[in-house]
Design goal:
By secondary structure, the chain is mainly alpha-helical. The protein is built from twelve helices and no strands. α2 runs parallel beside α4, α6 packs parallel to α8 and α9 packs antiparallel against α10. The relative contact order is 0.07.
Amino acid sequence: MSDDRSMAEIIDGLSDPDRLVRTSAVWNVMDWGESGRPALPALKKLLDDQREPYIRLGAAGAICRIAPDEAEGVLPVLLADLHDNDFMQRDTACMFIGRIGPKAEAAVPTLRLLLDDEIETVRCSAADAIGRISGDWSHAIEIGLTLIQSSDFLIRIVGAEHFEAMGTEAKAAMPRLRGLLRCVEWQARVDVEEVLDEINRC
């Protein structure tokens, strides 16, 4: 099957009456990067569908991915989802906003509010987005340091993945991570050591 044929099928899928087909098409088109620009008109139509917030959010994220020059145009959709009751909507909106970078500066005040979100992954994604937009990674580092020393191993996993997602920006946390080795319980110490090893490989 040719690429042209595949893209044509994705575009058709974006307007399919079956929501599962539309959802799949939205997330598939992201894999095309800027080669997916022919799908822009169909994606923009999905932005008007208030009945399907998940698909609408995915369409906004897909536009950010395939047409970075038009990402500012979907920022209002993403900003609205930062206030959604569904934590997955908030989390995903943070990630998409972070991908926009400095042009999403208007989102920073709301992102700062999410640094106190009840869900750990939302806090991480909000801090990561702030870092990508403003270059200020201090919030991301503080959240990561808090999570990685938790007594709950699942929360420590979130913290470890958070540092991994930061890439080289996590190097600024290394002195404090080393300091944690002297004061955390042995279970957390193992996770801190793994995080340090991962950062060293960046």
